[in-house]
Amino acid sequence: MMENCSACCICKTALFLHSSLDLALTLHRHQFPFGRRLPCDIYWHGVSFHDSNIFSGQVNKFPGMMETVRKITLSRAMRTMQDLFPLEYNFYPRSWILPEELPLFVAEVRMMKDSNPSWKPTFIVKPDGGCQGDGIYLIKDPSDIRLTGSIQIRPAVVQEYICKPLLVDKMKFDIRLYVLLKSLEPLEIYIAKDGLSRFCTEPYQEPTLKNLHQVFMHLTNYSLNIHSGNFIHSDSVNTGSKRTFSSILCRLSSRGADVKKLWSDIISLVIKTIIALTPELKVYYQSDIPAGKPGPTCFQILGFDILLMKNLKPVLLEVNANPSMRIEHEQELSPGVFENVPSPVDEEVKVAVIRDTLRLVDPQKKKRKDTQCPSAEAASEEPPEAAPGAEAALPSLCLKQVFPKYAKQFSYLRLVDRVAALFIRFLGVRGTTKLGPTGFRTFIRNCKLSNSNFSMAAVDILYIDITRRWNSMGIDHKDSGMCLQAFVEAFFCLAQKKYKSRPLHEQVASLVELCECRLAALHGKRLLWGCGLGQRHGALPATATAPSPPRPRHQQVFGLQKPPQLRALVCRDAAGS
Ligand code: ADP
Asked: Which residues are CB-neighbours of 245 under 8 A, at least 6 positions away?
């Protein structure tokens, strides 16, 4: 379905946009509030990807992004990465998922308190799917979790509360950074050089039973603090309750803080978070943009909410799939009379983000690049070229490419991506996001993971156990079967069984390699078998013909990359037979 709110398109280098973005654009746009008839180059949707009638061009949303960044799903993805790489992912607060992890939460807190009696923690409870601080509250003890109705707990994430945030003018504040996910495969990430700092409106004090309920002291949400009598609208970007992040950096720098290191930590946090999200996004992508059918490509602007600790360590609070792009705010002129007035801080940051996103996804530029450069990954190493004419007159890009620019440092973290590639390979039916029992059996059989200690009956039990548990706590009841996260759990289980007493990431990496290797060998054998048949029927020699079986598009896009030594292995097999 076409988003009926504020959908717009750029038709043949004309574009269609949200009214609040108008300032950012000089391009020609069309609005289609009642549905669109003509194909467009860029589709700018208000909320989500969905529009079954798009077969080409680019859409400003990825399928499944909203689901992937929900509080519970994000926490699960971060937990998986924390299990694999605890040090690399320590920028996300320790979290538990309610209601299913309540007993675990209670037990872990009790254990930590027993081992360190001086530990006086605070936790923050955030309802799943909530936004703008809605329903959030702080607690000192697990027994303070609120129940809805008589005994039920609303699905939520309970998280360690960061008690010592960095303060500016005695106030807590957070950072909203804009990140462009320009492409999923190859992965391309850009970060805006400036963001927003959103301030609380009551001076901060560490949480005590007395001040736990003071939202203007503990929650930095603009939507909450705007209602405080202390909220200051300022025309300057470095004063008031909403400022540019660069103004904070200037201030920190003048106090001698290592601002370069802070930026590099923030870039790391963003890249690692997106690496945690990509496996799930790829599953949604192959499901919504079916293999072999014409479809659009996607890009998306994300809002990263980051808190700085007193020691300047950045902490991820959440990722927003639909960050507000408003460049005006409501002002109460007289009691009860409101008017929208321009907000210079929002304008300064957001206009540049939209303008540069459009410059980066410009279809004409893409065509030029495609004809000049054979490899997309290589092409994106280069800074975006200046286009002739109008674009040359625009300011320099505010969006800085961070991936693949820094890909080498982070590639070892993309382990779950490879597990997801295996999952996608065995999904079978197009348009699904869940693996059936036959798909799981085929995966085990093709990767030769079953043996006398792990029979096919045990495989079925593993499938049923894990799938049932995940489906009982899942929010997505659309398809039956094993979701990616359940598959990842099963995969970790198999890896631990096979490669005992090694760190988890090594166990998983070894099993991924083994599976990739066995599938590549199987694929090689199938190729040879195909060639043999061809020769018997008098076709061209095998070396010349060896036609690859037509691979589904998801395999072409996210399929396993055959490392050079595997290619050698397949060739040796070929020579031997
Ligand atoms: P929402 O989507 O409702 O805005 P957030 O996760 O962004 O939910 O939380 C709202 C606010 O609560 C944040 O802007 C921040 O000020 C505060 N907050 C959230 N998590 C933490 C945390 N772990 N420690 C300290 N403050 C937090």
From this structure: 175, 177, 194, 195, 196, 197
